[in-house]
Structure formats: structure tokens, C-alpha cells
DNA sequence: AAGATGATTGACCACTCTGGTCAGATATGG
DNA sequence: CCATATCTGACCAGAGTGGTCAATCATCTT
């Protein structure tokens, strides 16, 4: 059959895709080994080519799949009716962690190809998808946000960048910590302390970048 | 001679080291190709092995060299008598850019091996150097800093992290912009607009994270 | 039970690239 | 002119590459 791969049990599909996501995002297109992918997925090398024909087709399939996931599970779910900046960013972060827990490999793969986009020529039908995704992506933190709450003595765009960078820094630190501690089990239960840390940070950021309408700032000396 | 490499003109040494730095930091130890390094350095493959004997020795030489540079050109030059946090961070950043302009490849290489330290076993004499470097590194933004200037309503460690993350975010954005614009010429003249942007950011951060002794914050509405 | 068809495999292919060697060429200095 | 140090790329065995295919296995139909 032509789409033998589609007819597989979902679990097997996922095993194969994850193996491929992993290999490609770790080594890039050229250095990635189809042998390794097959071995990692627990199937024969011939089977892999039976499904996808050749390396390039597999790669394009992965790109499409990753974009599909990112859109379906993340971008399309943002609630643009939420106008408070910090509520929006909280919603985004929580959603992102959930997606990451479930589709870590796919998202790492996407991050890789976005980061090294110079090296890859996307097939035409994917270019549009990419543009649309980037458009939404870029508007996540700005569309329909109530910026009147922000302090006035710093340009709004600057505040926005600073907040984004701060949260990205926190995310990177978490990733580091997870890696170091061999963190595996991304259940909500296990993540609880990190969520609390995150909310604490959000509170501080709000204190910093929102207007201080109550004038609390001046209780200086301890 | 045994240290034929040391007797070369500095320029040739540097060409070879840079080629090696580049290859190793892009591909990692195993995937890096000695052929590529030789070609990139503009010397015969035999010559490379004449100098270093084998791949591993070359690699260890590079690690040592990178640490040497980081210490000599950066860590040892920080002025710990400067107690103002933002002056300290400004000094560090400027110094880092200078070093980066001159030793980009070596620093990227060091970043790579620090990032993937799980994969590499350092030779014993380097472990000590690494520890010492990390010790200094970790104290750059804390030792002999006057923390009484910071606002009191946010934990000092939190403020510190936030500032670090913000500046790291700015640095990452600059790197991105440079890459996109094929920026090559790291002369002070060319960097000027970016310096100005940086100082502006520093001012804003100071306004944000230092105590607001003059109570300026409340000039709200535009 | 026999046959047919699709799914799966790994040995195999031609080819590229690997780290490393070494006989010979070239440069240097006495 | 020799001796010694420097430098080279053809060459090596081995590993790994993407891709093929005859053979096996599994499932279903008749």
C-alpha cells in the first residue's frame, strides 16, 4: 500500500517519528543516519524505506508533522480574548509546558530547523505554513493586550522585551536543572514546585513592569 | 622537534587553531573531521598530525588553550573593586565583546564543551582549571557588590537573576541580528549603535531594579 | 489448505569518509 | 653539499552511508 505508514498503530508511528525527530535534531539533515533511526525505532532498515521511500521524504514528512503539532496543540489554542499581559503569558507558558511534555522530540526538532533555517530549503507547501505560524507566533504577546497597565517611564516595547527575555531565561534555567537532575516524569504533580516558582516570578514581574497605582514602592529600609 | 607547533609563526598557529575550534564546536568531538580542519587551515593533513600526533591530543590542546584565553583575557581582568552592580556588569559586557571580537572561535568552542560537558572527560590537569574558572565565573556578579542599592520589595537574588536573564536575552538577540546581517567587522566604530542600545537598556534596568530614592515613579499618565 | 498479497527484514551494494601512516619532496641552515 | 627539520598527499584498513531486494513472515480470501 502507498501509505502503509499511516495504517500503522499510532504507537508504532510515534516510536518511528520520535526516533527520527531525535536523530535529525541532534545531528542535522546530512549527518543524521537512517540506520540509527531504524535501530532506535526498533524496526528493520528496509521497513523505514518501505514507509518513506528515502531520507528526504522522511525529513519533509517530519517538518510537516512538527508544524502541524505546533499549530494544532499550541498556536491555535491561545485565547486572544485575554487582554491582561501576564495572564496571557501565564496561559502560554502552561500550554507550552503541556505540549512539551507530550511532544518534546517534535518541538526540539522544530526548534532545530528554525534555528538553522539557512541550511534547509522548505518544500513550497510548507513555506506558507511556516509564514502563518510565524505570524501568529509574533503576535502572541501583543495582539489584543491592554498595554495601558504598563509603567510609563519605560517604553512599552522595552518592557515587553525585558519580560520576554526574563521568562526565556527562567525557562532555560529550568531546562538545565531538569537535564542535570535526569528529570523524566513530566506529570503535573512533579511539576508543581516549578509552577509555584514560575508564578512567583510572574508576580514579581508584574510588580516591576505594571504601574504602581498604590504607590507601595517606597517602603524602603527593612 | 617535539613542539614544532609552538615554533610556528603566530599567524599560522592561529589559523590552525581557529579551524580546529570551528570544526569541533560545530560538530562535536566524534563528528569533527581532521581532514576538514587541515583543509580549512590550509595545511596538509600530514602536517596536522605532525604537529599534534592524533585527534585527541589536538582536542585537549584546544581545551587548554580556550581556558587559558578565557582566564587571561577575561576573568583575570574584572575589577572587583567596582562595587556598583551596573558598572560591574557594564565592564564585564564590554570586556566580553572585546574578547569575543578577537577570539570568537575559541569562546564558541568553550561554550560548546561547557554545554555538552556530559560527553567529555577532561584530562586531570584541566579539571582544576575548570573549577577555578567556574568559581570566578560564578562570583563575577556578586563578589563585593553593594546590594543595598537594590529595591527591597523583591528578593535580591531574584532581581539579580532577572537582570542576568534580561542581558543574556539582549546578547542572544544581538547575535541573531549579527548573523542575519552577515555582520563581520567587529570594530568599535561599527559596534557603536549597539553599545548605545546596551547602555540604554542598562539605564532602564537601573531604574527598574534600584531603589527609587527620588520617588519619580509616579508621573503616570502621559 | 492453498494461494495471494502486503509487511518486514537484514545481508548486501557501491560509495564516501574516517583517523592515521609514511615515503618522498621541499626548505633551512651550517 | 649534506643533514636535519618541515611538510605533503597518496594510500590504508575500517567504519558507516543511503538505498535495494530476494527471501521470509503474517494475514486474509477462497
From TrEMBL, chains A, B:
Q: Where is the HTH tetR-type domain?
A: 10-70
Q: Does the keyword DNA-binding apply?
A: yes
Q: Which residues bind DNA?
A: 33-52
Against InterPro entries, the record matches this protein to: DNA-bd_HTH_TetR-type_CS, Homeodomain-like_sf, HTH-type_TetR-like_transc_reg, HTH_TetR, Tet_transcr_reg_TetR-rel_C_sf
One Pfam family assigned to this protein is TetR_N
Q: Name one GO molecular function term.
A: transcription cis-regulatory region binding
Entry-linked SUPFAM superfamilies: Homeodomain-like, Tetracyclin repressor-like, C-terminal domain
Q: Which UniProt keywords apply?
A: DNA-binding
- Asked if the record carries the keyword DNA-binding, the reply is yes
Q: What is this protein called?
A: TetR family transcriptional regulator
Task: Give the originating organism.
Answer: Alkalibacterium putridalgicola
Q: What is the lineage of its organism?
A: Bacteria, Bacillati, Bacillota, Bacilli, Lactobacillales
Amino acid at each position: 500500500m502507498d501509505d502503509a505508514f499511516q495504517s500503522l498503530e499510532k504507537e508504532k508511528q510515534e516510536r518511528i517519528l520520535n526516533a527520527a525527530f531525535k536523530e535529525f535534531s541532534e545531528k542535522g539533515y546530512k549527518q543524521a543516519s537512517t540506520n540509527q533511526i531504524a535501530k532506535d525505532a526498533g524496526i528493520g532498515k528496509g521497513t523505514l524505506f518501505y514507509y518513506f521511500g528515502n531520507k528526504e521524504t522522511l525529513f519533509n514528512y517530519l517538518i510537516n508533522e512538527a508544524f502541524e503539532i505546533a499549530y494544532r496543540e499550541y498556536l491555535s489554542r491561545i485565547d486572544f480574548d485575554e487582554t491582561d499581559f501576564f495572564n496571557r503569558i501565564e496561559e502560554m507558558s502552561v500550554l507550552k509546558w503541556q505540549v512539551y511534555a507530550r511532544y518534546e522530540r517534535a518541538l526540539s526538532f522544530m526548534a532545530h530547523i528554525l534555528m538553522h533555517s539557512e541550511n534547509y530549503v522548505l518544500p513550497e507547501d510548507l513555506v506558507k505554513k511556516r509564514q502563518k505560524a510565524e505570524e501568529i507566533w509574533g503576535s502572541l504577546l501583543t495582539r489584543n493586550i491592554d498595554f495601558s497597565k504598563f509603567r510609563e517611564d519605560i517604553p512599552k516595547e522595552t518592557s515587553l522585551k525585558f519580560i520576554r527575555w526574563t521568562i526565556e531565561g527562567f525557562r532555560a534555567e529550568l531546562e538545565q536543572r531538569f537535564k542535570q537532575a535526569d528529570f523524566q516524569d513530566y506529570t503535573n504533580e512533579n511539576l508543581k514546585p516549578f509552577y509555584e516558582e514560575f508564578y512567583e516570578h510572574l508576580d514579581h514581574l508584574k510588580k516591576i513592569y505594571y504601574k504602581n497605582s498604590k504607590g507601595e514602592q517606597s517602603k524602603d529600609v527593612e
